[in-house]
Design a protein that fits this description.
heterodimer, A: 252 residues, alpha+beta, 2 domains, nine-stranded mixed barrel, two-stranded antiparallel sheet, globular, B: 565 residues, Metallo-beta-lactamase, Chain A, nine-stranded mixed beta barrel, seven-stranded mixed sheet, 17 helices, 24% strand
């Protein structure tokens, strides 16, 4: 009897885990906004306490120690010419999704609609859209911000031995592809159209009440990188949009 | 059935989150390769929310200070080691064998083989008088998928490896988030001494099951032969090295000096400096803390009281303020019923001898049979031992019952009590001319009196024979006597006149501070500056947020140097 009960509970929870809704009593699928385990909305500011020299100002050509570029990538980076980018209307190359989140930027995060989270960045006046529950194929020309598929990653309490319990928190996972080739670093460190950007967003609260986004970024690019690049970035929540300062892209 | 499901749901709601951080984690250096491996450039304080005190301390930092034997094996502090240095590490958990609940998360770093414990069993952080360590004391709790760790009791260290300091009053909060094979760490440092806003930074690790942590032995050697007592540092305004960094990268010099405004986009968020901190010691509440072996520290009574407790009875070093005597004796009585036989005074001040009379009355002297029989009353009251100079100073003002009953006039006085040698070592011109260090050779603990404190600058009583050079000599004497255990931590422990339990590294930090300030004021004196000019030049600026009022110390150093000592 006990075993059967545990088994039944186990099945119920397991199905809930996979689909997001109990199979035994079907209900309409919740929207991403409804099921969000963390609240990312609001105004946020980047905090640049490390890597300042490569983030707050544009470093010189060839200043890319530590970036695992292959010879082809290195060659391109050493040929960086901001004037050429300006002339070809590509001054936003450093503001694509992989580079944007390392910029000294503020973010404004809102729900564009129930299954689309929108991130506006005032640096370069860029907009990223995170699509949940989307099976749309990538179409059209690649864009600076690419196409981003998002999903919540829930943390559930477990009932021993293998039964998932209620949600206790979670994070956001975003995979971005279909990127227009751009720069990981403003001084011409390249990524290609084959690059895949995976990001995890966590929210933390500090002892003084500050809320932070802890962003884990993994960039894979078989064309220019010898191994994936792992970056960690943090943003602090702002009380409002005071200081929001949209600026155009700059190649320099 | 319904009850069983209810129980299951209850179990759901009460069980902890099950994120496993265990494994071998490797570092990834990408953007921050230069800072994390070769090290930051001198004068690069970009993006750090530091105050002027931190800037002066960093500008005074001379890299060769790392060659001092006492500093060679000092590991990175917990906040720097894991968030900046980011060496490979191993994480594992320890469980209660009965309940299987995780009681602690352990982390071992490749660097120096440092191990950290993050307590997950809900225990409280230790007393403010407890010893500080390089890795501090950490407790953790899960918030969703994020492990949040709070660390206190850290020793002095740095937030950037070019001399930018982090004080021993900092509290560090860390958030560990694991996603697949990636581990991200967000570190939040709140240092009321050197930061105007909390410092936040991030670091990342990648799971690497093939990783093996190699041993990391460290043995101090004499790397540079230099005269005794020399502490390498730059005098204010003389460090030319720090000017190279902004020039090299075309940055304004003011930008390179950092500050909270430099960490936000376009410097748009204004920030004012926080009020300068001051010592936070309060006199409320007495605590008895174990030090090691026979030795305990009674804190909270003005000056610290050292207790040696064993089969022979109780020996106390100093007796605190007279007004606190009853409470202090009551606290000891709750702790042990052994009689107080000896009182050792390290100096003459009332916050160290004020309780002599009451403590004396509460104890008795060990006397021989014939003496005790023939001369009645000799065993009444504990013996009070001090240097002759202490008796000389107290004779005119203290009550008879508070006066030392046994004095020494030479270099040292030996006792053997509770199965260990106890040696009083006269320091002829430190805080005063009657100071004694008390060295418990078996327990390996030194009680310093006010020659060394953690709550203020040294108090140098020139009128009673104190001097700056004598203070530095005595601090160096303490360092000679102490022998640290691994990683320049533990080993011989030190009980200061005021403040928390320490070890050699804490005395080294303090000795360096006193020496550096002495050198600065000596340089100003050489340039003919008056006392007012010296005070206006703020030679203690980098330490004022930590040690508070500086006027008496500056004046004492100035006058002491003026007298040629």
């Amino acid at each position: 009897m006990l075993f059967a009960t545990l088994l039944a509970a186990s099945c119920l929870c397991a199905q809930e885990e996979e689909s997001g809704a109990p199979v035994a009593k079907p209900v309409a699928q919740k929207t991403a906004r409804e099921e969000a385990p963390i609240d990312l909305t609001g105004y946020w500011t980047a905090i640049v306490t490390q890597d300042w020299r490569w983030r707050m100002v544009t470093p010189k050509r060839g200043d890319f120690p530590g970036i695992p570029l292959n010879p082809e990538g290195r060659k391109l980076a050493n040929a960086w010419d901001p004037a050429k980018d300006e002339a070809s209307g590509e001054q936003c190359k450093a503001y694509g999704a992989p580079g944007l989140m390392r910029m000294p930027t503020r973010l404004h995060i809102t729900w564009q609609e129930d299954n689309t989270l929108r991130i506006d960045a005032d640096a370069g006046t860029q907009t990223r859209l995170f699509h949940f529950h989307s099976s749309k194929k990538e179409t059209g020309d690649p864009q600076w911000q690419g196409t981003s598929a998002a999903q919540w990653e829930f943390v559930r309490t477990k009932i021993p031995p293998h039964v998932p319990g209620p949600i206790r928190g979670g994070s956001l996972k975003v995979v971005t592809t279909h990127l227009r080739p751009g720069y990981l670093r403003k001084n011409g460190v390249p990524y290609s159209g084959d690059a895949v950007l995976t990001e995890y967003f966590d929210v933390t609260t500090e002892p003084n009440g500050w809320q932070s986004i802890l962003l884990t970024t993994i960039l894979e690019d078989p064309q220019y990188l010898t191994q994936s690049v792992l970056l960690n970035t943090n943003f602090r929540k702002l009380p409002d949009g005071a200081g929001w300062n949209p600026t155009p892209c700059s190649a320099r | 059935m319904r009850h069983l499901l209810a129980l299951l749901l209850l179990a759901c709601s009460q069980a902890p989150a099950q994120i496993d951080l265990s494994g071998e984690w490797g570092s990834r250096y990408t953007w921050d390769y230069l800072e994390r491996l070769p090290g930051p450039e001198l004068g690069d304080y970009l993006g750090l929310p530091i105050n002027n005190a931190a800037r002066l301390k960093a500008n005074s930092w001379e890299a060769s200070t790392q060659t001092i034997p006492e500093r060679q094996c000092i590991p990175h502090g917990a906040d720097y080691l894991f968030s900046r240095a980011g060496f490979p590490m191993r994480i594992w958990t320890e469980e209660d064998p009965v309940t299987e609940k995780v009681t602690a998360i352990r982390i071992r770093s490749y660097a120096w083989g440092v191990e950290r414990t993050i307590w997950m069993d809900g225990r409280a952080h230790p007393s403010k008088y407890a010893r500080h360590t390089w890795q501090g004391f950490s407790t953790g709790q899960w918030n969703g998928n994020v492990l949040t760790v709070t660390t206190t009791h850290l020793k002095w260290n740095y937030i950037r490896r070019n001399g930018v300091p982090r004080s021993d009053e900092a509290t560090v909060t860390e958030h560990f988030a694991r996603h697949s094979d990636y581990l991200t760490l967000l570190t939040y440092i709140d240092d009321p001494v050197y930061l105007t806003e909390p410092l936040m930074r991030t670091s990342g690790y990648v799971l690497d099951p093939q990783q093996q942590l190699e041993p990391f032995p460290c043995e101090p050697v004499e790397e540079v032969v230099r005269p005794e007592g020399v502490v390498p540092h730059h005098l204010p305004g003389t460090n030319k090295d720090i000017q190279e960094f902004p020039a090299k990268y075309g940055l304004p010099a003011a930008t390179a000096l950092g500050g909270a405004e430099t960490m936000y986009p376009a410097y748009t968020i204004p920030s004012g400096p926080k009020p300068v901190g001051s010592p936070r010691e309060t006199a409320s509440g007495l605590e008895i803390l174990p030090v090691q072996k026979n030795i305990y520290m009674l804190a909270g009574d003005g000056g610290n009281i050292t207790l040696q407790i064993g089969k022979d009875g109780v020996l106390v070093v100093d007796t605190g303020l007279a007004s606190m005597s009853d409470q202090a004796i009551a606290a000891i009585r709750k702790f042990t019923d052994k009689p107080i036989h000896y009182i050792l005074n390290t100096q003459v001040d009332a916050d160290h001898t004020g309780g002599n009379e009451a403590f004396g009355k509460a104890g008795n002297t060990i006397t021989g049979g014939d003496v005790a029989d023939d001369i009645g009353g000799l065993d009444k009251g504990a013996a009070i031992i001090a240097h002759q100079r202490v008796l000389d100073r107290m004779s005119s003002s203290a009550p008879f019952g508070a006066l030392p009953t046994d004095v020494y006039g030479g270099k040292q006085k030996d006792l053997y009590f509770n199965d260990e040698p106890v040696v009083m070592l006269h320091q002829p011109a430190a805080h005063s001319d009657g100071d004694s260090l008390v060295f418990f050779r078996g327990s390996d603990v030194i009680s310093t009196g006010d020659i060394f404190v953690t709550t203020s600058y040294p108090v140098i009583d020139l009128d009673r024979g104190g001097s700056i050079q004598g203070t530095i000599d005595s601090l160096n004497r303490i360092i000679e006597l102490t022998v640290p255990a691994a990683l320049q931590e533990g080993g011989t422990l030190v009980i200061p006149g005021h403040g928390r339990i320490c070890d050699e590294a804490d005395v080294v930090e303090y000795r360096d501070m006193v020496t550096i300030i002495r050198d600065r004021i000596a340089d100003m004196l050489k340039r003919g500056m008056s006392l007012d000019q010296v005070k206006a030049a703020r030679p203690t600026e980098d330490y004022d947020p930590r040690y508070g009022s500086n006027a008496a110390f500056i004046e004492a150093v100035y006058r002491s140097l003026g007298r040629g000592k």
